[in-house]
Every structure is written in structure tokens, then in C-alpha cells.
Amino acid sequence: MIVERTDFVTVPVTDVERARVFYEETLGLPKISNGGAWPEFQLGENISLYLMDPTQIGQPFRAPHQAHIALRVADVAETRRDLEQRGVEFEGEILDTGVCHMAFFRDPDGNALMLHRRYAPRD
Predict the structure, then answer these.
(1) How confident is the model at residue 81 (pLDDT cuts 50, 70, 90)?
(2) Is residue 3 part of a domain?
């Protein structure tokens, strides 16, 4: 199998409108779909985030996601401060791994997200 790219990541939510407000207004992600039951937001150049209430297609809500979706930002500390002013609560302090900075938080349904910035060169 040859994968050309990842088109989108689906995030399960229980309240699509509440999630839309969080991702669009609180996080400030650009919305790329203007209709339908499942809002979609652009994440950088090559992937989007798609909100879906699984009960709308006859499946149970099995979230929250526990594997963090890493959102690359220019400055983790600055972005964290901005989001904290918008009411986002972070889990712990900024983690410096020696390679990157990470700051962990969750959306209104408890799905795991992180701010991320690699600062060390790749081998």
C-alpha cells in the first residue's frame, strides 16, 4: 500500500455545535466546510480535522481520544498563554523533551490535544 498523505483526522464529539465553537472560535482554526453536520477545520498545509457525532451514523460515542493530536505552533508558551486567556485549561506545565516543547489540553469532550514545536534538528 502506498499512502499519498493523510487527508483528515476525525474527532468524535457529543455536541457538534459546542465543539465547532471550541475549534473555530476558541482555538481559531480555519473552518473549511461551510455546511452539513460535520464541520471540518484546516490544520496546516496537508491535513484537516473533522468533527463527527458518531450517533448521527448509528455508532456509539467511544471517546474521548487519549492519543494526543499534536498541533504545531510557532511558540508553545505564547500560544498557551493566549489559549489560557480564552479559558482553555492545560494539564501540567510545558514539557521540554530536549527535542521539542509540548503543552497538553483537551477539547470539551475530553479529546486529547497538544501544542507542539520541535526545536532540535532532525538526525
Answers:
(1) very high
(2) no
Task: Domain count for the chain, please give it.
Answer: 1
Which residue range(s) make up the domain with 55?
Answer: 8-118
Q: Is residue 29's pLDDT more than 80?
A: yes
82 in any annotated domain: yes
In this prediction, what percent of the chain has a pLDDT beyond 70? 93
Sheet bearing 69-72, strands edge to edge: 69-72, 112-118, 100-106, 90-96
123 occurs within a structural domain:
no
Identify which of 93, 87, 113, 110 has the alpha carbon closest to the alpha carbon of residue 9: 113
